[in-house]
Amino acid sequence: MVIHIVGGGPRGLLPDLRSYDGKDVRWVGVDRGTAALLEAGLRPVRAFGDFDSLPGEDVARLQQMLPDLDIWPAEKDKTDMEIALDWAVEQTARCIRLFGATGGRLDHLFGNVELLLKYAGRLIEIVDRQNVLTVHLPGTYTVMHDARYRYVSYIPVSEMVTGLTLIGFKYPLTNCHISRGSTLCISNELIQSSGTFSFSEGILMMIRSSDVSCP
């Protein structure tokens, strides 16, 4: 099972959600992201949030369409996205993707990245029209060439990432140590059909990006 969560980020940064649909995909709405899902013709299995960003009549309409609408108070100790992600993790999905999690308010963006750190080691992606962001624990990982994403960047999230090795990239590395704040591994590119990255200690963020800005 794959769970796709759609948050309330700017609509212009959402990819075509229908292209991510499939037989084993379960959709989840977060606040006004629920409306974006329904407009795309995708029915969520659950919807979470305080829905304070929607007019009252729209919330009433959602309640009629989605009996399992999970409305939380506006004053709480977790964001709507964290509530939805916590639920998704409990479902033991093999992959979770977050849409509508970038753009707009920077506090929400950084909060959503923190959620990936909370669940580091699980396959969770933040996806928008231009980027795919993942967080990795030490190990060896394969990266397949994807024409949609020319650039591959690695950003240390922990104080230090040690033993970073990049194979199959335009700018290879061997057993390199990079500290938090370094831009050494920004805007690399795969030059083979696949490549690998590995490291021995720390937490590493990988961002795959296209070179075409969103309109």
TrEMBL record:
Acetylation found in the keyword field: no
An example molecular function term from Gene Ontology annotations: thiamine diphosphokinase activity
Keyword Electron transport: no
SUPFAM superfamilies noted in UniProt: Thiamin pyrophosphokinase, catalytic domain, Thiamin pyrophosphokinase, substrate-binding domain
GO biological process, one term: thiamine metabolic process
TM annotation in the entry: none
Keywords attached to this entry: ATP-binding, Kinase, Nucleotide-binding, Transferase
Domain annotation Thiamin pyrophosphokinase thiamin-binding: ranges: 139-205
Principal EC category: transferase
Known EC number: 2.7.6.2
Family annotation (Pfam families): TPK_B1_binding, TPK_catalytic
Listed NCBIfam families: thi_PPkinase
Name this protein carries in UniProt: Thiamine diphosphokinase
Organism the protein comes from: Geobacillus genomosp. 3
